[in-house]
Amino acid sequence: MFQTFDVTSTPETGPARLQALRAEIAQRGFDGYLVPHADRFQGEYTAPSDERLAWLTGFTGSAGFCAVLPDVAGVFVDGRYRVQVRSQVADVFTPVPWPEVQLADWLKEKMPDGGKLGFDPWLYTVAQLRDLRDGLEGPAITLVPSDNLVDVVWTDRPAPPRNPVKVQPVTRTGEAFSDKCRWLAEALEQAGQRQAFIALPESICWLLNLRGSDIPRNPVFHAYAVLAWTGDVHLFTDAQIDAQVRAHLQSGAIEVTLHPLAEVVPYLAGLDGATVQIDPASTPQAILDVLDGRDAAKVVEAQDPCILPKARKTEVEIEGSREAHLRDGAAMVRFLAWLDAKAPSGDLTEIDVVRKLEEFRRDTNALQDISFETIAGAGPNGAIVHYRVNELTNRVVHPGEVLLVDSGGQYLDGTTDITRTVAIGDVGEEERTSYTRVLQGMVAISRVRFPKGVRGSDLDALARYPLWLAGQDYDHGTGHGVGAYLSVHEGPQGLSRRSRTPLEAGMILSNEPGYYREGAFGIRIENLIVVRPAPALPGGDAGREMLHFETLTHVPLDRRLIDVTLLSHDERAWIDRYHADTLALIGPRVEGSALEWLTAACAPL
């Protein structure tokens, strides 16, 4: 299996590790030290060698950081992880609600004037350090760059990954990498820039039509790149580059020069007099320090040139994603039919559920990896938004509960991410009402039409409105961007209060409102959607460009959890159409008991 159920961290290890780190902090003459979740490539998901936050604290969430001071160690987490962090860290750590409590404010309260705060400049971006310095303006707290002190005390730290790189052919990307480099370079030259430093591995993989496996669940490899105004690229990586990949990189009119990862610093230091563009949101502070040290050179800040083009999927990528979702949808239908037959006995555990779902995906003979650790939370575990079952937390799926299953697959033609919440036997009225409100929010996003220029933050409230009417809400975004056989969480597009990027045709996003009752149950419903041009309507404004969402995911909703009396006529009609489409598209891909189950599950409300 791709997923394991090992206990990777326990609260018991935290106190000794914190003590060792504090001793190293004191030896360096610091009054504190910052430990982020990020690696030097600023990814949400990290290789085992970069799981410093989890090693130190026991907290395994995909976002957060720890500020270690002599008498307090604050673990900052957002709303997704408030329940999880309390169960994973020892009492020597203090959970801090972030972003409600900002790091700068917390430090000004906890640290003395004149305090020195150490940090690894490879693990913090230019923008993050700038914001922190701005927030600390006033008190005499000095940020001091340092080597990584966690690495000093982490004596059995795994080696960094150096896995093979693979070619993602143009038949799956829709555009040759040399063409991408050429027109991005033209834009660079028009802006008066000579070089663009690219820090994000997913951007580099997209640009060069390559994929890798340095980070579990994400088909990318560790790398930095520099794109020149000529279209030529300098690629810095320690990943394994074989003859096929080298031939691919030599197949275009542009030149791709390969370097070991360690050569990025001397290469950038040698660009004296050259103007270099960086993205402050993804470039490590250590890189800016190198560039600032050059003679007669200039650094210009702009967004990563690959970010928006990567988000705007080609028609080839969209068609591939459709096929990946139909393949994955058939596996999900087989799984849900099996679950309905087996779960009411009360003999299944959460681990049984995860294993069986991965088995159905593997049966497609197309699965490259799961796209993230499958979440299978029964009863109260469903209220832990990013719950990962292990041998210690594994729980029986009891009749009378709801089971939340959030999962996805990585296929060569697309990345999937789907959540279904399922009733195990008869469940309570509160669960059914909450499910229906969440469903209403998901349907509202699915049905919306909007003018070009609308941002994800403009639409987020539509998904929350039914819950708000009941005095309820959820503490995560409504949707994130998704890559094309790339990272399951992709920026800059999103559906949340923080999503400021206008939505454009070709962007793939998740649509996943939820509701969580701590200690009782969790509900989330998730489909993937793609932004498409909306057809004109009679009476609509002439010349006003409108967009809408095409739903990519086709898997039945649990009709047993829907309180039809709460739905409007239009909501019922959308659900019935969705189920009719699902039966038409998935029906030919399943047979036997799975087809019987699908037919019943897709019956009109």
Automatic annotation (TrEMBL):
<comment type="similarity">
    <text>Belongs to the peptidase M24B family.</text>
</comment>
<dbReference type="Pfam" id="PF16188">
    <property type="entry name" value="Peptidase_M24_C"/>
</dbReference>
<keyword id="KW-0479">Metal-binding</keyword>
<feature type="domain" description="Peptidase M24">
    <location>
        <begin position="321"/>
        <end position="532"/>
    </location>
</feature>
<dbReference type="InterPro" id="IPR029149">
    <property type="entry name" value="Creatin/AminoP/Spt16_N"/>
</dbReference>
<dbReference type="InterPro" id="IPR032416">
    <property type="entry name" value="Peptidase_M24_C"/>
</dbReference>
<dbReference type="GO" id="GO:0046872">
    <property type="term" value="F:metal ion binding"/>
</dbReference>
<protein>
    <submittedName>
        <fullName>X-Pro aminopeptidase</fullName>
    </submittedName>
</protein>
<dbReference type="Pfam" id="PF00557">
    <property type="entry name" value="Peptidase_M24"/>
</dbReference>
<dbReference type="InterPro" id="IPR000994">
    <property type="entry name" value="Pept_M24"/>
</dbReference>
<feature type="domain" description="Creatinase N-terminal">
    <location>
        <begin position="17"/>
        <end position="151"/>
    </location>
</feature>
<dbReference type="InterPro" id="IPR000587">
    <property type="entry name" value="Creatinase_N"/>
</dbReference>
<keyword id="KW-0645">Protease</keyword>
<dbReference type="GO" id="GO:0070006">
    <property type="term" value="F:metalloaminopeptidase activity"/>
</dbReference>
<dbReference type="Pfam" id="PF01321">
    <property type="entry name" value="Creatinase_N"/>
</dbReference>
<dbReference type="InterPro" id="IPR036005">
    <property type="entry name" value="Creatinase/aminopeptidase-like"/>
</dbReference>
<dbReference type="GO" id="GO:0005737">
    <property type="term" value="C:cytoplasm"/>
</dbReference>
<keyword id="KW-0378">Hydrolase</keyword>
<dbReference type="InterPro" id="IPR050422">
    <property type="entry name" value="X-Pro_aminopeptidase_P"/>
</dbReference>
<dbReference type="Pfam" id="PF16189">
    <property type="entry name" value="Creatinase_N_2"/>
</dbReference>
<keyword id="KW-0031">Aminopeptidase</keyword>
<dbReference type="InterPro" id="IPR033740">
    <property type="entry name" value="Pept_M24B"/>
</dbReference>
<feature type="domain" description="Peptidase M24 C-terminal">
    <location>
        <begin position="545"/>
        <end position="605"/>
    </location>
</feature>
